[in-house]
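Customer ticket, subject: "Can you confirm the structure for Actinobacteria/chloroflexi VLRF1 release factor domain-containing protein?"

Message body: Hello, I'm evaluating your service for our small team and ran a test protein. I'd like someone to confirm that this is what the system normally returns, since I don't have a reference to compare against.
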Amino acid sequence: MTSVQVPAARVERWVANFVARHGGTALSVEDGALLGVADDGSRFAARLPLGASYDGPAEAAAFAAAVQAPERWGVLLVRKGGFAVARLHGGEMVESKTGQRHVQGRTKAGGQSQQRFARRRDNQARQAYEAAADHAARILADVGDVVAGGDRAAVEEVLDDPRLVHVRVHQPWLAVPDPRRGVLEQAVVDGASARIEVHNA
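Agent reply: Thanks for trying us out. I re-ran your input and got the following:
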């Protein structure tokens, strides 16, 4: 199975390309998703952003029209080297913050120096996560639904902050490099896109 993010404007073309590759495709709506099953046995399931349920007609155009970001949502990206957090209103970024922190790479040294190095690394990472949690708590104060990405353990560490208990993370999980501004902007596009899971026969 592969999973792809497809913006609303490209959904109809994506479905047409699927049909061209796999033959006649029967569309249906089940469990809040648009399903397609092709003559060759390949299939896809297309879902709306941030866990929204689709209950419209079994047509690519109607599904594409329903692919819209919710009124209020957020993005949270965390890696050891930095973080990015944004609050959105539909497709518009209302507030955001990106931050970089220096966390040392691994060392090849052995013995006590390696242990000291590991402790320093852990302390630097913890400080980075605390900074990310502070900004996330402020920016996502009234946002429940987010798309997250980066390092799963790092994101979980940030979301362990009691000020963020109201946050619900939705699929897809975004595999991102160290979060810079451009990475955050792409994450916003991906978060507001349809998520299509494809099983090729």
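A couple of notes from the result: Residues 2-68+194-199 form one domain. Helices lie at 11-22, 60-66, 111-139, 152-159, 181-191. Feel free to reply with more questions.
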